[in-house]
Amino acid sequence: MTENSPPADTGTHRPRRSEATRAAILRAAVARFAADGYERATIRAIARDADIDPSMVMRYYGNKEGLFRAASEIDLRMPDFAGVRAEEAGEALVRHFLQRWEEDGSLAAMLRVGLASGLDEGRQQALLEGQVGPAVARFCAVPAEIPRRTALVASQVLGMAVLRYLLEVPTVTSMTHDEIVAWLAPTVQRYLTAETA
Amino acid sequence: MTENSPPADTGTHRPRRSEATRAAILRAAVARFAADGYERATIRAIARDADIDPSMVMRYYGNKEGLFRAASEIDLRMPDFAGVRAEEAGEALVRHFLQRWEEDGSLAAMLRVGLASGLDEGRQQALLEGQVGPAVARFCAVPAEIPRRTALVASQVLGMAVLRYLLEVPTVTSMTHDEIVAWLAPTVQRYLTAETA
DNA sequence: CCGGTAGGTCAACACCTGTTGGCCAACGCT
DNA sequence: AGCGTTGGCCAACAGGTGTTGACCTACCGG
Known about the structure:
The structure is a homodimer of 197-residue chains.
Chain A: H1 19-40, H2 43-49, H3 54-61, H4 64-71, H5 89-103, H6 105-116, H7 123-137, H8 146-166, H9 170-173, H10 177-193
Chain A binds a DNA duplex (30 and 30 nucleotides) through residues 8, 16-18, 21, 42-44, 52-56, 58-59, 63-64.
């Protein structure tokens, strides 16, 4: 009954008591978009998941597209690969991606949705340049080659991700991380460090 | 006016004079699904494109999902690679895929839609086994390895296709066929013929 | 000449969607 | 105590959806 009665100030910034709700909406949205895709994920369903009224979603995020934009921000969590030797780069990258995709199911979901309806044009471009690019740069001496090498690495890693996490092709899902690394790491390694053809 | 007045029997099978309409519907459906995705491609729009009534679509294909199933049958048109030497296999495959994707825009579209909402589970699996598999088999002696090698080849080719034709990342779209082949062919070649790790 | 049937249209149904504006309750400040 | 602001809910709107069944029309066999 008395519940918790938090002190008036919960910090230096007044945290807008509704931040909790805002976050709940976003969490529910990510899950719904992930499971159902953009069109099938209805605002009503998201609101129900978050235990609030549909109109609240609009108040907080303006409209459905705004909600989606907020929900589909992807963070690859690329480490800086500081201690990684150049000839281990391919393996390190492939392992990181496998782990990342596996630990965060919403990654696959957001990719699916992103591919489906071209809502966020140029978003993936930014993702490549902003997140994958810097990692590639650490192993690639010639700056001019970075975009292309980044794209090549992405093509292989992304293709594997599509097969394994989106399509869930049995042949691929049944492979172990080590097996995948054994095949993909040399490819990625070549894209990173081989001299230009 | 007189138009063509076909004889009563145009063959052993009576060709159901409506086959023309049926085909028109399907053509419009492919285009619409391609452009707008599954949910946004409305039956009304498809019918309008085909210059018929929406209800005709239902008569011919039962419901929207049936229409989609009919419209999303992908034919990779794999040649038999009879005259291709083993060490040219990678290049031959990559070139074929590039050409195929380029000449038939609906391929990309259908992939997009197929990825979006898991309507056709196991469909891509069948596509791999039925169409890519046999091509791989021609260059792979050990039958047991075919599924896995097929999947690996697919991962690279498909990843490139996603970047180039779905996401249309500038870095990738600006590459020439020869450049792509130069990078991808060795990878595919290795997936086809390298000894198991 | 005439009736059946295939191909096609029309109008409507029932439903669900994103979105909006008005109303209510609780809280913090003065 | 009183007041404004904030967070939240309710009910409704306008529009678009897949889908259905009744109706029409021209052809073709007998």
